[in-house]
Structure formats: C-alpha cells, structure tokens
Amino acid sequence: MSGIKPPPPPQRDDFAKKSSEELSKLNKLRDEAFQRVRRHPNAEEMARRQANLKLARWALPSIAAFILISLAAWPEITHLIHQNSEVMKNMKRFRQQKGTIEQAIYRDIDAKSRPYMLTSESAQQIGEDRINLTKPKADILMNNNVWLFIRADKGVYMRQEQTLNLTGHVVLYRNDGIIINGPSADLDLKQNVIATSDWVHAEGPFGVQDAQGAFLDQNAGTIQFIGPGLTTHFNDIAPKATSASSKKGT
Q1: What are the backbone dihedrals phi and psi of residue 206, each rounded to the nearest 5 degrees, phi first?
Q2: From CA 18, how far away is CA 27, in angstroms rounded?
Q3: How many domains does the chain have?
Q4: Which of 9, 108, 111, 241 has the fewest CB atoms within 10 Å, i.e. is most exposed?
Q5: Which of helix, strand or coil describes residue 163?
Q6: 114 located within any domain
Q7: Residue 127 covered by a domain
Q8: Bridging pattern class, strands 193-196 and 179-188
C-alpha cells in the first residue's frame, strides 16, 4: 500500500492562465511607473496652489457656519416671510382705503328721487363711508326746475348718510338769483336741507342780508336767517316776491 502514489490534483478549466505576453506587458508598465520621474511644480503653480489652499481654508468653514446658522434661523425666517406677506396684504388694503382719486365725481338721488352730483379736484377714501374732498362742488336739482350750486375749499362726504360738511370759503348760488357766502355749511343731500351756524352774507332779489346763521329748506323753498343781523331790502321788490325770511334773536 505504501508504494501507491496519490492521484494528481484536479485541474479547473474555468480559469484561463495569463499568457507570457500579458505578464510581460504588465511587468513593463510597472517598471515604467517606478522609473517615471515626478516633475516639481514651478513658482507660479506653487503660488496658485497656495492661493487655493487659503481660499479653501476660509471658504469651507464659512460655508459650514452659514449652513448651521441657516438651519438654526430657518423657523424665524419662515415666520418673517409669513409676517411680511400679511403686512403686504394690510398695506394693500390700507392703500385701497387711503387711496386718492383725482377729479372725482359722485352721483346719487335724494329721498324724492331727484339727482345730485358732487365733484372735487381730489377725493381721499377714509374707511368705507367717509370721503375727504378738496375743492368740492355740488349740483342739486330741485322741483320746478330750481337748480342749486354750492362750492367750498374742503368737504367731508358721508356716502351712506348722504351728508356733506363744507368748510372754507363756502359759496351757494341758486338760479333764482340768491347768493350766500359763509365759512361753513352742512348739507343733508337726502332731505335737501342746508344749515349753517356761522355768519352768512346773502344777496338776491330781496336785497342784502347779514346774519349769524341760516337754514335752507329746499323742499319748501324757504330760507331763514338766524340771529342778529343787518337787512337791506330793495324797494322795487314786492314782499310777495321775496324768497327769504329773517328770524332775529336777541
């Protein structure tokens, strides 16, 4: 039994052996790599490398710090963005409410469906109801083709209430020839009533009247001058043609 030789190890055919040419090619490439001499960089290349290193030394930490700060501040940034959008909405609403219109015109009718028109050089919307007017003018049509025109330096028009408060140089003119001047006047455009508690100076077919106040009822077609005043009647005007009455106080 001791003289029997063991069988040779099995040979695998799935692994191909490298040929001698391939081995020599690899050896040659390896020798060339070892024998290759590395070229030292010149001064310009060294300076460029140092500049890149300095830039990286400052840029990389700065970028990292910026990222960390952004992550920490992102909730606050989101809140500010949302808050800014709300502020812009409020500003837009504010501009609409506070908007100024040049050469504004407002038309409406009174309680008896008679038209009137307000014009002004500029109008500023204050809230939903109030409108501040600059150089306002009002044209009002009454019964029997009676027409009234009134102007002032400033005015406040309340659209829902249909009232007009005038201040400054107020001048009222009716097409029957009556002119009234005063510093202020309050108009109820819906009821066609005009009143003032300041001094007035009136001229018309009846004469000249100065008083401490006046009340005009456009529906009744009467004018009452209130308080102490001075009355000058024209002699050539009959009493029945007078369209104004005076009520003097003590």
Answers
A1: -80, -20
A2: 13
A3: 1
A4: 9
A5: strand
A6: yes
A7: yes
A8: antiparallel
